[in-house]
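Researcher: Before we compare anything, I want clean individual predictions. No alignment, no superposition, just each chain on its own. First chain goes here; please echo the sequence and then give the structure tokens.
Model: Echoing the first chain and its structure:
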Amino acid sequence: MPTFQYRARTRTGASEDGQLEAPDRRQAAQRLTAKGLHPLSLKVVQEQHSKASKVWEQVLEKFAALSPQKNKSSGDGSPRSGGSSKKEKTGLTFLQRLLELHSSGLPAGDSVKILSQRLSQPELKTLAQKLWRDLSEGSTLASALARQPNYFNSSSTYVIEAGEATGNLVPILTKVIDYLEEKQAIRRKMLASMLYPAFICTVAVGVVILFLTVLLPQIQGMLERLGSEMTWSAKLLIGGADLLVQFGPFVLIGLAVTALALRQWRQTETGRARTDAWLLRVPLLGKIALHGDLFQLGNLVSTLLQSGINTTETLQLTERTVNNRALRERFHIARQQVNEGLSIAQAFRRNALMPDLALDVLAVGENTGNLAQSMTEVTKGFRQELTQRLERLTTLVSTGALVAAFLLVTLIAIGIVTSVFQVSQSLSI
């Protein structure tokens, strides 16, 4: 049985070092928790490693090896987070079917084999066949999933690898599926929240352009034939419409070129870092981006902790899944501070990773030994806050578009009515 060198934090906040024997890292962490200690690091000091311990180390080594120089699947230096939304949804569906079979007692390999034969959807069937081919050649389930990065993101595959190592694949799969379902729900919510504002803006812009380029010039010609002219406000709008017709295509081309250049610049290290930092400071959008990242971060952390992974390894696995570079840098510093003996709540507070109320909840969870549950509750709060901010943004954008369109149309209508009134007065004289 291997011996582990540990560093842990007592309930009073003090750091404690020592050794203990345990079959693997997970059980070592559990024994420390049972003693009222919060594990910060665990290292094997004997050469004889358990199978689970070896796999844990391999997982962390693989994750640490995903550097910007070696990882070519992503332009930002982070592990590939998955493919398109459609492919990620297909991967989620596969995991759901796999869980149904595996939870009934069928081995994971046999479950994949049955799915490769019985699934009817072409893309899903092809995916299952590829996975079964890899499994039949000796690959583990996690390794097979990792070879399909468009369908399964790196964080999910590493968690599943941990589940295979500890023999707790069913609860791990359940938690991974819950995490991916939550992620998909948030994505659908964000897309749905922007559809209505986009529709309103499109209609408003269309109405304004129609008034300026078609209706208003016709009314101007009619008034000129009657010996009158438009008011100064209407003339101003007509002048703006003429400029729009003349230079509008060039403006659109310029905007397209600028957007393409910004996109290319964002692919660089400097561009990604600066745009991510800038995004967090943008009113409304910054808070939405922050709470979206915090929701995914908290969900993954709670999933890993509930799966029996200790705090140190959980933070290591989570760090590279943070999309925003600025937030990831803060998380990295916080993780180092945790390794040095700070509590998670203290480290997160020093680096302004989460709101104070959320950190207070995490502090209570750490002191009571219920960090995973506290992180789950905090994550629920992040989702609620994200939903509220998305609804607020939807309302604001929709209202702003309607108000702007109303003001422009009202200004045009006033100009027309005033001009017609002037014509009627001149004709009556």
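Researcher: Okay. Second chain, same rules.
Model: Second chain and its structure:
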Amino acid sequence: MMGDIIKPLEASSEGLIESVKDNTSAEGMIFFHADEGKPLATPWQVALSRAILLNKYKLPDGYILDCACGSGIQVAAYSAITKKPVFGIELNPQRARASAVNFNNIFIQRGEKNLESLAKSIFLAGDGRDGNSAIDILSSFTGNSEEKIALLHLDPARPRNSRSHSLDEMQPKLGEIFDGWKEHLGTTERGPAILLDLSPRLSHQQKLEVEVLVEQFWPSIAKTWTWTSRGKGRVDRLALWLGSIAELNCNRRFIRISPDLKQEPFIFQGGKPLSEGPEVPVKVKRMPKRGEYVTILDSAFVECGLAQYWLEDTVGLTDFHWIQSEGRRPQIHHSKKLYVDNEEYAKIIIQTSGRIVEIFHQELNLATVDDFVEQAVINDISKITIRSPLDPSLQPKIQGSFDRQLSRRSGKREGFLLQHPDSEMTLLCVSE
């Protein structure tokens, strides 16, 4: 069943009590949510970045469809950038209305002058799987019996307490959406435009299952898997871009969004198809050496399988070893200092980098911290950052001991401590 048409220009915010300022928006935009919809909503910075990237590609004619639009932030960003009208469907009636209100408010808060796409856009409370009924309603609204969908966007709901999301947990299910909307999708010489916003927790095998399902409906369609991170080594968004919005000859793409709202995202793409493996580097067992360099990379970048290509093709580093490739602190050891032309991007992708000046064959704890301080003083270090995993109750005490003792010295360099995997060795490094 489909509810009434909700027009953004006529939608009322009455009763929508969940209004929250989005801190990722340079304009300080305020969005409405409903029925605890805020945790599920896409941050405006992420939505806008994705819309800007989408605008690079040739979309078919027609409407942008989001058939599970939630609070409507992503679909509003698409419209604001591409200038296309949207068709939003949301099963929850309150959220459907919140979507329409947000859509209107985004245009107002951005100071948009051309309101054509706003006037043409509509939202429905209903079942996003029922493409035939939905397109009939859209056609009756526009007076065009041959309406087509320019972009199909789907961000299915997942259980919030699930640690590993299966395809069966998605609501609505991918196959049901494909079946309901395939005949209504516009197309280009590269096929339809489809963007699937999926759980970052999908395993490699589950990603392959998604590909198999897509192939059943659109054989040999181009695919670009896209990992998006906002920092802290975490993948915040995993999406599959299909057809006319897939990057040519590009199977994987990593996007790192900076906390600086004015900075362009870091984008790196390439790699092999997922069918050839996850491409997370295999770590090697190797003893560290004084004088060699250690670099800790962004773990989300490593997770997507592109860090190795970036190091080799962009940075030009070839003589290096993966000492740790999973977890929060993926690390490589290399013989030469790492140079990156763009320092701003370097800060985003590289957690830290430095040269090993001392190797401790003992655990870092309250009883041994003075030994570490002594070596720090010998190496002219005035500040140390602990990058070894420590008991949370001990970490501030040990860090405090370093800070107090080193503050009384006249060292001129900064350093960090790093645990060598699979051993009790701790590396003292000078930041370079």
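Researcher: What stands out in the second chain?
Model: The radius of gyration is 25 Å. Additionally, The chain has a mean pLDDT of 92.
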